[in-house]
Amino acid sequence: MKTLQKILSILMIIVLMTTDFSVLGIGLKSYAADNTENVEFSAYFTTENGTKVEKINQDVTKQDLKLHLTISVKNEGYFNGSVKIGDGNFKIDTTQKMENTRVAKVEENAISLKQINAGETANIEVPVKMTNAEEISTNILSKDTTLNLEGTYIKASAKSNAIGITKTVTVNIVPSTNANAEIETNVITNIKTKVGEETKRVIQLYVKTRLANNEYPVKKTEISVVAPFAENKPEKVEAIALKTTATNNEDTKVINDISNDNGKITFSVENKENDSKIIKWKKDAWDEFVVTLIYDENTTIKNDSIENYNKINTQVNITLYNNEEKIISAQNQTEVNEEKINSLIVKENSSKTEMYKGKLYSNTTSYYPEEIPYMDTTTVYLTEADIINSIVVTESEEKFVTNTEELSANSIYKTTQVNKAQVLDILGEDGELSIIYDGNIFTINKDTEANTAGNVILTYDDEISKIGVITTNPVKNGKIDFIHTKALEDNEYTREQLKQVNSMKNTVSVAGIQGENEIVKDVINRNIELKETETKAELTIVDNKGSLSTLQENKLVLGVKLVTDGEQYDLFKNAGIRINLPKEVEEVEITNADKLYAEGFAITAGYDKNNKAVALVLIGEQIDYPATLATQIYLQIELNVKLSKTAPNKTSKITMEYVNENATRYYGQSDIQVLSADENLKGYVEQKINISSPTGVISTLNSDTYQVETMTMVESEGKTIEITKDQAGKDVNFDLTVINNTQTDMKNVKVEVQLPTCGKTELDVIKTKLKNIEANGAKIYYTQNEQATVDITKEENGWKTELDADSKKVLLVLNDTLAKETNFESKLTLTLPSEIPTNVETELKYKTVYDTDSEQNVETESNAIKIVTPKEIKMETSMSATVGGNELKNGDKVRVGDVITYTISVKNIGTQTIRNVTLNGEVPAGTELANTDTQITYTIEELKANETFSRTYELRVTEKVNEISNKATASCSDVTEISAELKNEIETAKISVKIRQDVSDFKDRQNNDTTEYIGEITNFTNEEINDIELKINTNGINLKEVRIGENLYTDNLSQLIKISSIPANQTISIGIKGVISTESEKVTISLSAKDKEGEIYNSNETGEKVFKKDVKVEVTCSRENSYTDQGAYVVYKIIVTNTGTLDTNVTVKDQFSNYIEIDNIALSVLKEENGNETVTSPAVEIPESKYVDNNLSYDVTIPVGSKAQFTVSAWVQTVVGEEFKTKEISNYAVIKINKEEKKSNEIKFYMKGIDGQNYNIDSDDDNNNGNNNNNNDDNNETTKKYLISGVAWLDENKNGIREDSEKLLSGIKVKAYDVVTNDYLKDSTGKTIEVETNANGEYQITSVASGEYIILFEYDTNEYELTTYKADSENESRISSVVLKTININGQNVVCGVTDTIYLDWDTPNINIGLKTRPKFDLELNKYVSKITVQNNKGTKSYDFANKTFAKVEIDRKQLKNSTVIVEYNIQVKNAGEVEGYVSSIIDYMPSGLTFRSELNSNWYIMDGNLYTKQLENVKLQPGETKEIKLVLTKQMTEENVGLINNMAEIYEAYNEYGISDIDSTPNNKMNGEDDLGSADVYIGIKTGIQIVAYIILAVVNIVLIGIAINLVIIKKQII
User: Fold this and answer.
1) CA angle at residue 368 from 366 to 372, to 5 degrees?
2) Measured between alpha carbons, how far is 487 from 1 in angstroms, rounded to an integer?
3) Of 1262, 1405, 1408, whose CA–CA distance to 1342 is shortest?
4) For 12-41, how does the pLDDT look when each residue is reduced to its tens digit (9 = 90+)?
5) For burial by CB atoms within 10 Å, which of 508, 1243, 1333, 1424 has the most?
């Protein structure tokens, strides 16, 4: 039993496992789709015969090596990734453009790939460059380089696998096959002289060697010399390496290891690896040696009987560092002839072989001429110490050299540096070297103190122009370097004299003394070329979105730097600058032009409209070179620019020409240009800028006659022009432009113009005449057949070339291709008919038909200009009426004395605007106007379609007539419309009630004024009427008293007032007095009387307008919150604004500080309309009598809506005898209106004391002045610290001036740059001081020492752009002081907001930065699968996926061959930015295996294997808006093409009216990761019947096994 249980358990486990694995395995294809073997990667080079190799030899002199990469995706899925190059001996040559559709981006060590789909292979050829440094590792010459393919492989299941495949290639960098060595040999010494105690012949050779062009690292250089003179062999051989730069980049050394094999001398130098296997590889270098051969004195130098007796043969053998240790040799032969003496070699290693004249020129004008420092190094090589007793060096005075004379250069020695070890090495421990100058001797010996570098430095206290050197007896060969620091002092030469100077020279002579004789000597003439300066300026496009839009006004900020960052550049004097804007520019406004770092200069700017050029004139002269690179003169010009709307998409340019009075030449010009110039030369620089206009084929149609413009891609509809009858016979001009803003040329272009003479019937046309048409570059055809097509070959179309005034169509056939980024223009003139018909609507439009390389007969149509003739005038008039607020209908009765309010109306019920409409009511018999000034006739200038015009007027019924009949009449042109009559019967009334304003009390009322009215109640009967109840109805009037006859009422006036009686046929008068109390602009009053029978009689309603007197006052100061010098100019403005509704007289008072001296006060009155201020009253100067003792008091009347502006021009007084460091100067104004006073805001600034006048005054009793020894350090001027502060704000209205309501910005980083140190301002620990603006936008940099600073602001330039620099405002505390600029700090370029130089001697506030939000353009594209349909013999089955990025369907294997799969994609384009935009076209990268059917996709077309749609090109996408596009693709199934299909779509072209680029993606670059590229996956798999059967069988087996197990358990229990 137990055994059976175990068997059953094992069987169940096996079955269950089999179930899992069987189910899991069903449906999988035969290959492993989830393994990385689906992605293959190889890397190789190719040999000359095309063989693929992984290891290659590369000639070091060539840069033509190409690395080949192959990446394949075999069966299914797709791959995204990159190839990275590891540490090797080559890198990608990014200077060579890689034209490969598979490459997304190239960097120095990485290639980003575009997506590779199943069945695709990417073959990429990569140009590479070899490592080429002056210090290299030896293994670099032959090294393996790893290539890593990294990325993501998407499997059929849509799951991702990380891919990492590594390949290795090897490059052996080898010397060129024609590598050669170079050797030069010269005899420099050939004399008989004492060597020690004996006379010998000394021969010295100067040998130079190298590997030609230093093309490869040298391992060893071996020199061999075959000595001359046949059997006369040298007794002694010596060699010294002056330098071995070409081999190992080493300096002078004596060579001790010399072989002398019977007159063949051999020695070598090596380039040894250091511990890190680093060797030297210097370029443009030579090795230099001196070889000394010492012979017996009797050796003759000539012997004609022996061939080659006096010849010297030299050879160099250069061993290279390649694996073969290749040896390259060269030979040279020279001969010994005449005697030479040159055992000493002197070399001049000047730090300057050339010097520019810039500082020489600047010193001619500078108030403080500078010394011009430079360095000379004189190196003396001693190559045979045994033959001399002393070395003498003489250096002469420097001279300026012209073509005709030599002048003193006024050059002086500042220091001389000599290495002590070099001196003792050559002269020995007891040797001495003496420098002789101006009668002084400075000696260097073993006891002389040297610095830590071992150098002895002599500093000259006097102006020394020449020196000499003498040594004791040398004991050894070697060298001594004399490093001189020199300076050119100020001289008396003029600029014109200095222009004649070509160079500066001096002579250095070195003599070897033997006894008392010079036996060897070397002389060099040191020459420094003095080069002419040149004028240079740079133009930058500072803060622009990268392009100029044709659809919007553009803010263009240009920066001009006048380059003076070295003495090679001229300083500037009276510079002129002309900036030529692109030809596409139509309008320009200069909003700001300012200067930075240009003290003493004045700038003016203007615009030359005809030449589209901005002109700048900078008057002044630069005296000195700027202290740092950061403070070169900088100009900023801010422009508002409008472009022609017909300008095509293209790259244009802005050019700048500039002149400088100091210029002799301009940057980039040759000497030939300067010499041959017939006129003044100019500097020239240009910057490219993109012109951004809508993409696609753009059609414009304009009429300057009617000032209408229409453009496709921008406007979805055309425009309408209305023709009036008085325009009959008039000429009308039209312009059309076809702009090719596609990415391809347009061929066979035809433009068909449909004229207004086209229409379905005669009633649909305007019989214009074609007067003229211009179309340069096109042939013109005419036809009267409005059904004609563009085919000129078909006779039925009727195209003719003769001008036909009655044409209905015109065809323009372009002579040439319309290339991309160009346009075609045409003009036509139509003459209107002599009689203008009515009710006609027709249109003028055109279409363009063209071909491209991939499409034929493409059509685009312009928007139409609709031409509308006058319509039939249709009006509707009406009249209504009320009495006492109740509607008065036709037939209702009114009473004598009633006041009827009539409303008359006219409505335009036609379809077009009508003009000059007259509307009037009537005054029927028995009535009169309730108010004498009431208007009953109105003229309406313009009444639009469906618009109604209404007015009311009041009539009083004065007598009983049969009836009152009234109507409204409207007239326009010859059309008159009369309303239905309103008829009312008149009843006799007992009482009449009316009210009017007291005529003796007319005036402009204000709140709290008393107003008076007179009411009248008339008894029309012949009997006395008793017990009348009077009610006074008021709105905005508080009743104070009512007088009726002799009775005066003052209480409960809002209640009913009892009138006891009114005599027969009499009128009683009611005097009413009240006080106005309202916030509204009008008050009303009316009366009602009630008789004892209950009848109510209402009066008319009257009232009056309420006026308001109110003003506000504000004071500004040009020096607000600043620290201001005594004697400075200051401007106050007192601005009093009339905010009421009455002209208002005010008294302006202001007590100015006694520290202010008023120059004059001017008063002007201004009025603001539509945001612009205009002067309504010219400025008048206020008499001095009105501000005696600085106390202003002046009365002025300010009209409604105007402001009175007092401009106070004053000087800060100079204060003597008063002690202060700073003094606060405050001010405010007081306005008196009636009896009320208003105080303005208070403003203040700080007057600075004067050193020695107001502070630091010598007083031993004063501990706080800085002129004695008893002051505190905190108050000492040398330790005084100051504050720099300001505000960052968001300039929401973009006017450059900070408003109180505008947002303050936190988190803006602020630093100070010290102009003197050319570094950031640092704290005591050496850390850069950096602060941030707080929540109130404020920042403070504290404890700053006196000096010159530039404040730097770091902000997100993607988020913000700067507002106007120093906008025009009287209040400097409210403007921005910052421009965007590249500034050089410590050799690093930093792009940030910068200020002008701040000269800090006081706390300096108001260093503000204003920012504007930069508009963002951001389009996203997402792609989804919405539906898949499978069609086969079984029928049609659809699967809805509701916009999934992965969709899977399975097809029965038996039906696979007969199945067609239809995939419906949903492409969604969203505007995720902040500006409106257009998607001109979308590309779908249709994968192989899918099929495009045009009948399923009417808005798509195929070109070069990809799909395109322009469905959204005229759709303006609002921020946040999403649009959808459908695409349907099909796949015909086979058993071999199941698997994963990836399909991508991307925005191909997009634009916006601002011309700004998408913030995070580039159209049409197929770059993964960008949000304008969308992707969707479809997996098509196989479904088999085996799967279902397997499930059933396995389930049955499991059930049976479980049943057996249960049965066994039961049996077991029964047995137990």
Assistant:
1) 85
2) 116
3) 1405
4) 666 555 544 444 443 333 322 334 678 999
5) 1333
